[in-house]
Each structure stands twice: as structure tokens, then as C-alpha cells.
Write a structure and sequence with these properties.
This protein has three domains: 112 residues, Copper binding periplasmic protein CusF (OB fold (Dihydrolipoamide Acetyltransferase, E2P)), CATH 2.40.50.320; 86 residues, OB fold (Dihydrolipoamide Acetyltransferase, E2P); 111 residues, OB fold (Dihydrolipoamide Acetyltransferase, E2P) (Beta Barrel), CATH 2.40.50.140. The protein is an alpha+beta fold. Helix 1 packs across helix 2. The relative contact order is 0.13. The chain has five helices and 18 strands.
């Protein structure tokens, strides 16, 4: 389901990538990422970094190996382990000296977060977000509190979001749907119309949340006709049906591309035309629609895209791209297709 899918990624990134222990070293003397290959006899680890590069790490004879719990920031609390305790899939921070021409890394310290520990921590965090988390659209933005509209089974209701002591506030970078790119922020950067997710405790009457974590971003939903495709650049060029302007949609590994079955599109169209809120059953039908690739699209296809707005108004990074949407966009009696008031409320970024 969308909630589980979109939340799954953010929990691991919050726990691992934002840990100060894993961040306070210069990029030239470290390798930070996941172990993809391991040769204990040769004392070699291949690490796929978060930037996508592969680095061969050589553990020096005097290298020390430490294991820390996910989220831990104090290396003194780390347990001493051996190279044989490291497994493929573990996250590591290797520190040492870069090889000639920047090739490889001779490591004197390797800090490990095991994949098993990360998975257990993620599961606990995910359960807590399900229990105490909310998602909504910002209606009122202020320096001390934010008001969002939260969609529930009973309809849409406002919720006041305030910050608990030592709360974490982050904001997506322009044009990015990766939480790894999100930066520390403050409430006064949030604007009306932004999408926001928060986790914390509510007051007894449920009207206010004291949030421990807040992440926000500016997102758009547009409809357009495909003009051309560039699979090499992972881009779709289209004409926005409403603004009549050209737009470039960028697709990446975090983007979800699907084609709606005719019955699903008709069900959505019926509800959009009467102004009804989308229900969870339609949400699930969207999420269960077949996956597609850019190669499955062609010029002239109508699509709907929800994505992250960047600094360039003519570009959008896709979170969700839907094909098979003509029946939604073409109102009875209308000559042209239009998005109208429909919004692809499918989550914010690669949570």
C-alpha cells in the first residue's frame, strides 16, 4: 500500500543517513554506503556509496571494526567486532586514506550498522509512524505552529502542529523526492499549500500535535500530453493541459509509473466529477495497477504526474506518473481534457 511503501524508505534514512556519527567526516577520506561484496581473506569490502559509486575498501592490518546501533551517535558505545562479523547488506562507514588518483580506500576504521539491526529499528519506527503519524496539506503557516488539513475516514479536519522539545524539522530539496537530500529546516520555511508529514503526541481533544519529527515539501500535480520521450535521460516532455506550456518530467528510481485499468479510471472519474473524496479502496486500486516504464508511453498519451517542484517552473521530478487517465481528464461535453480539481495525493517523496 502507498502508506507503507512511501514510509518505508524514510525511516531507514532518518535512522542511518542523518546520524551525526555517519556524517562528520570528509568525503575524501571515507566511504559511506552498503556492502555489496566481501572477501575476508583479502580483507576487501566493496561498498556502494549513497552517491551510487562503488569503492573497494581495504581493511588495514591495524584497522579496528565497531558495530553501532541504528541512530547511535556516540562511537564509545560501539561494540568491538571482527571483519568476519560484517555481512553483505550491512551499512558501513569506512575511514582511512584514499588510494592514488582517488581509487579505493585504505581503511583504519570501519563502523558497521548491521542490516538486521536496521530492519528491526525500521519496523519499530514504521509502527510508531502508523500509530502517531499524520500527513496533510498546510493551510496556515507560522513561525511557531502549522495548521494542516488531515484526511480521515470521517472527512477532512484541521490539525495544529507544534514542535516538541528537540524536534527534527526537515525539508525536501528543490526538485528532489529523495529524503536523503532533505535538509534541516524550520517551521518558518513552510508555506501554505505544502505537503507535510509529522509524528508526535496529540492533545486529549485531538486538535493539536506536539511533533517530534516534521518533514515538508512543495509538490505539484499536473496533467499533460506526451510530446516526446528520452529514455536515456529518463525524461518525458509534455504539454501541460491547463497552462498550455511545455514541461519536462524527470523520472528516477524512486518514481512510480503505472497504467490505470479502464475500470479504475472510470471509478476515479465518477468520484472526481461529483466532488467526492477519494476512498481507500480507490487508493489501493491505483497502487495495484500495473507498473510501466517510459518505453510503454508514446507521443500523444495523456498522463497525470505528481511530483516535486524545483527551482525551474518548467521541470518536475515525478513521484507518481499515471497513464490510462483519459476518462478522468475528459469531462462529458468538454472539448478538451483538463486536470480540474483532482490532486494525486499519493504521499510526499520517497518516504
Amino acid at each position: 500500500m502507498r502508506r507503507e511503501r512511501t514510509l518505508r524508505v524514510v525511516y531507514g534514512l532518518v535512522l542511518v543517513l542523518s546520524s551525526p556519527l555517519f556524517a562528520q567526516t570528509a568525503a575524501t577520506d571515507r566511504a559511506l554506503g552498503a556492502v555489496t561484496k566481501l572477501d575476508v581473506g583479502a580483507r576487501l569490502l566493496t561498498v556502494k556509496t549513497d552517491a551510487g559509486a562503488e569503492v573497494v575498501v581495504t581493511a588495514q592490518p591495524t584497522a579496528s571494526f565497531r558495530r553501532v546501533a541504528p541512530g547511535e551517535t556516540d562511537l564509545q558505545k560501539a561494540a568491538t567486532i571482527a571483519l568476519t562479523d560484517i555481512s553483505v547488506g550491512d551499512r558501513v562507514l569506512a575511514r582511512g586514506k584514499a588510494g592514488a588518483n582517488g581509487n579505493g580506500l585504505a581503511a583504519t576504521l570501519i563502523v558497521v550498522m548491521s542490516k538486521t539491526d536496521i530492519a528491526q529499528k525500521e519496523a519499530a519506527e514504521r509502527a510508531d509512524w502508523d500509530r502517531r503519524g499524520v500527513t496533510g496539506v498546510v493551510t496556515t503557516a507560522g513561525a511557531d505552529q502549522i495548521v494542516i488539513n488531515v484526511r480521515t475516514a470521517a472527512g477532512v479536519s484541521p490539525l495544529v502542529v507544534k514542535l516538541a522539545p528537540n524536534a527534527s524539522v526537515r525539508r525536501y530539496a528543490p526538485g528532489s523526492v529523495r529524503f536523503a537530500d532533505a535538509r534541516p529546516s524550520a517551521l518558518n520555511e513552510i508555506q501554505a499549500g505544502d505537503q507535510l508529514r509529522a509524528r508526535g503526541d496529540r492533545t486529549a481533544d485531538g486538535s493539536t500535535m506536539n511533533a517530534e519529527q516534521v518533514v515538508s515539501g512543495t509538490f505539484r500535480t499536473i496533467a499533460g500530453l506526451v510530446v516526446s520521450l528520452d529514455p536515456q535521460q529518463n525524461e518525458v516532455r509534455l504539454n501541460d493541459l491547463d497552462s498550455k506550456k511545455p514541461l519536462v518530467v524527470k523520472v528516477n528510481a524512486a518514481s512510480s509509473l503505472r497504467r490505470l485499468e479502464p475500470q479504475v479510471a472510470q471509478a476515479i472519474a465518477s468520484r472526481v466529477r461529483v466532488g467526492a473524496e477519494r476512498s481507500s479502496d480507490l487508493q489501493q486500486m491505483i497502487e495495484s495497477s500495473p507498473n510501466i516504464t517510459l518505453a510503454d508511453l508514446k507521443a500523444g498519451d495523456p498522463i497525470v504526474v505528481s511530483g516535486a517542484a524545483g527551482t525551474n517552473a518548467q521541470e518536475l521530478t515525478a513521484i507518481t506518473l499515471l497513464a490510462g487517465v483519459e476518462s478522468i481528464l475528459r469531462r462529458p461535453g468538454a472539448k478538451e481534457m483538463s486536470l480540474g480539481s483532482w490532486t494525486l495525493d499519493l504521499g510526499i517523496g520517497d518516504f
